[in-house]
What we know:
This protein is mainly alpha-helical. Helix content is 70%, strand content 0%. It has helices at 22-34, 37-61, 74-78, 84-107, 109-116, 120-155, 166-193, 196-216, 222-229, 250-274. Helix 2 (37-61) runs antiparallel to helix 4 (84-107), helix 4 packs antiparallel against helix 6 and helix 7 (166-193) runs parallel beside helix 10. The protein is globular and about 60 Å long.
Amino acid sequence: MNRTPTPPLPPATEPAEGAVRWTGLLRCELIKLTSLRAMRWTLVALGVLIVGAGVAITAGSTTGARPADVRPGDIAAAFSIPLSGTVLARGLVAAFGVVAATGDLGTGMTRTTLMAAPRRGRLLLAKAGVVALLSAGVCTPAVIMVWLIGNARLSHHGLNFPLASSHAWLALAGNVAVLVGLALAGLATGVLMRSAAAAICAVLGAILVVPVILQLLPAGGLTDVLNRWWLTETITNTVDVVDHTAALPGGAGLLAFSAWLVLLCAAAAASFTSRTA
């Protein structure tokens, strides 16, 4: 009995690297972050802290102030009062970045994601893009809102800054850029350390503790260098309209801050691509 030969089966093929489209990868990371209740509440707390602390500090700082007492330079000096909450928010936004990184690494979700998107660098870039998008989406309206509210409050005491001033809006943009950058710094630290507790302690120490220690140390030598080039000290003139002569100029400070971020992110990328998930 003649049998028709069975054609050979095609060779098995593995999924092509990068089979998941870039937009799909971004959507996946966005869903993962926003579906976690803790992450949503962290973002809410971030916005509330920026606005609430700024309004409270502005109200307390202007008690008893009278327009007749305003001296030249007081208006510029008062510019950053409503933005006081952004300084407090730096630690929280960095912690948000840390948890965004360590959440997947701690639960093993990264392994599942890598099965669909094997290119580790692409995955880390997508995660960084989502962290930047979410932090900017919260910080931008919060910073603008608290400054407008605080500036209106300051107007009753003759301390309001002109709304049409380009210096004001550049400083506001600088505040948002710094907060987004610190979220990315937190993400990079989380990838490097792979422990949420250790990474959060590290970023809080670098952002909140080291600057205080630098202020307590005697001037000169290494202290002056660190006061100009430490991560959070580079942006002193970037986030304010007052020219702090001891700090880096606004543009140079932003470049130095960006260099810190590039180094941290490059180290995180090298660690993530070389180690197992």
